[in-house]
Write a structure and sequence with these properties.
This is Response regulator. By secondary structure, the protein is of the alpha/beta class. It contains 6 helices and 6 strands. The radius of gyration is 17 Å and the shape is globular.
Length: about 170
Amino acid sequence: MITDENPDAESPKEKEPVKILLAEDDKDDQELFIDALEAADVPSEVTALENGQELVDTLRDKSQPDPDIIFIDVNMPVKGGKQALEEIKGDKELRDIPAVMLSTWDHPADIEDTFDKGADLYVQKPNSFNGFVLVLKKVFFLHWAKALLGPVKNLFFVYEKNISQGDS
């Protein structure tokens, strides 16, 4: 008797990859992000873009499917992350796409500004690979939790030190 069932084959519905747009001008940071996603066991399809203008143009391109989530570096050339965020959240067709801001800075004014502009999370870039893995695990946990709970401002700022304690 011949069957099509292969117990070792992954079911296509087992883990649908998360479609991610990453707007990040630093190639090393792009690679670190992608490697950390893999290490965090987040099945994903990442499209990396160089700046905020490319991000906005890609999102407005109707031939491309909308991503599940976007990650935006705050400081980029051509069009910075905050300006891109403002345009995205001001567009009725794009505003519901979750947006996570990435920055090496943790300046309260930047954090407040991106929150006011509609970002869903603000993540301080970790200094280590393991820190990045932890942060991404938390971001994806918070993202799906937020979909159920609505915006929670005290969960808005994520950085390595506020998640590595007790999350081992």
